[in-house]
Amino acid sequence: MPESTDTALTQIASRTDGARIVLDRVSKVYPGQDAPAVEEFSMVAEPGELIMFVGPSGCGKTTTMKMINRIIEPSSGSITIDGRDILSLDPSELRRHIGYVIQQIGLFPHMTIAENIAVVPKLLGWSKQRTAERIDELLQTVQLDPGTFAHRYPRQLSGGQQQRVGVARALAANPPVMLMDEPFGATDPITREKLQAEFLRLQESIGKTIIFVTHDFDEAIKLGDRIAVLSERSQIEQFDTPAAILAEPANAYVRSFIGHGAALKRLALIPVETAVLGAASAAVDHHRIATDDSLRDALDLLIVTGAPAIGVVDRSGSLVGSLTVERISTALGADATALAATRSDEGRPA
Amino acid sequence: MTVSTATTAISTASAARRTDRRIRIARRAATPVIVVLSLGGLLLWLSTLELDSIEQRTLNWDYIALRTGEHLNLTIVASILVAVLAIPTGILLSRTRSRAARGFVLGLANVGQATPAVGVVILLAIIWQTGYTTALVALVIYSFLPVLRNTMIGLEQIDPFVKESALGMGMTSGQVLRRIELPLAVPVILAGLRTSLVFCVGVATIATFINAGGLGDMIVNGLKLQRFPVLVTGAVLVASIALLIDWVASVVEDVLRPKGV
Ligand SMILES: Nc1ncnc2c1ncn2[C@@H]1O[C@H](COP(=O)(O)OP(=O)(O)OP(=O)(O)O)[C@@H](O)[C@H]1O
Ligand SMILES: [Mg+2]
Q1: According to the model, what pLDDT value does residue B4 have?
Q2: Tell me, what's the ipTM?
Q3: If you count residue pairs, one on A and one on B, with CB atoms under 8 Å apart, how many are there?
Q4: How many angstroms separate the first and last alpha carbons of chain B?
Q5: From the alpha carbon of A61, which atom of ligand 1 is closest?
């Protein structure tokens, strides 16, 4: 019996670039409560996918997420990681292979930053040398200078710095799965934006399967490969890519969650290079936008400058075309049509 | 302009820190100085007296060393027993879900402390026996509560999210206790032990009533035989021991307090 648990864990642990997570009709009823906090929740997260849970306070996001590492035991249903039923695995051993970041950060106050990051490697029996190298590497990844920060204690760090350490600590043993509960919740908008950008860059290089809980729909759009919009009892109102949800909200509930300015939010997701550009000669002024900027940035520049058209430059800096408000609007329409086409191809209900 | 303001702020802060440290060192030095001064004063005063034969029998180095040794022995052994018994009890109680069990044990410890120490000692002597062991048991009963209560408080005041992240990272509950909870509870538990130690020094004077020795002998003899110097010597010694033990405990507290907290 312990041997099969061991092999299962070794198999999961070896999937460092993401494991598939399957939740099948998972429910949770807290003792002493009539209504379930999570009811019949089913979802498949593909390896390497970054899935966002969004929903109002108390809808069951945290509860759903914490059942995946068994901090909360499900009342019914099954959860598998890489095909293994997690209920058949030893909870402590399982958790060592699932990165865990909580909203309250929860750094250990009596341990230095280096010691905090070393916790899981130590539990897994890594050598001192390997652990030390990993700490250095991770601190650099989250942009904290190891020389300055490794030997400080958590209370000597700012909130944003602590959250980075929280993320580094969860990544320490290179787990295939990460659970992140509002990891950037306690920071000001500017730090938050910076952390999000860093995180996106990080995910591009590490590609874990990540469940990411947030209140903030804009954060979900910005980071997620797919977004699950949740309502009461963790019911899935819509589960799709950010672009698809913005283009075609499934119902009034989702629409209310998106809020105003859906078109602008969509524009932020579309790079300039997907638009059909006008002639380069139309860009009479010196205002320029890059091909990998978003259409939202392009529109912003058009409005700010009042120019009828702006020039588009490629990575080498040479002028390749121009953009007008009309062309941006056309690109938005084309994007919606393309989305609808892929969706009917996949045979999903629109 | 901004730079100079900032520099001033920094130097003010470091000056404040320096005065802080000076105050702390002064406070730290105060206790030993007071103890040395009062013991020196006592010695000086005794040397001016003509002692009669009764006084000479108690006011000599051998006798004083014997009684002080007994007193320290009672105090320290009782405190070790309290630590060994009350800390695990506190850990167990803070882990049980049963409110009734917690209420019961805390209530029991409360009774132990609230009952006058003389009462506990004499009651035990009547229903059991006189002597060292009885005195020890009485001391343990009497000073159990502070350590028990502080162990529970120390464990319960820990940020639940710190515990949750430890568990979520894959520590077993034993590892969470050893690596996270106990180190973080150390300052509070030690404060409880310090209180217990000081209690013990005071209460150990009562051991004399059941033939268990200690400095209580000198105080009671001094009273009974109306020998003022004997009485004063006993009293000053007990007070000095209490102060010194409290002082040592405070140093230990500072040394063992986890860094970063
Ligand atoms: N330990 C618990 N015992 C009983 N009920 C709980 C417990 N934890 C959560 N609940 C209840 O379950 C429901 C879902 O809570 P959950 O924490 O999952 O919500 P959430 O979506 O994460 O909310 P938030 O955005 O505020 O963090 C809530 O109604 C909450 O009151
Ligand atoms: Mg939550």
Answers
A1: 47
A2: 0.80
A3: 70
A4: 36
A5: 21
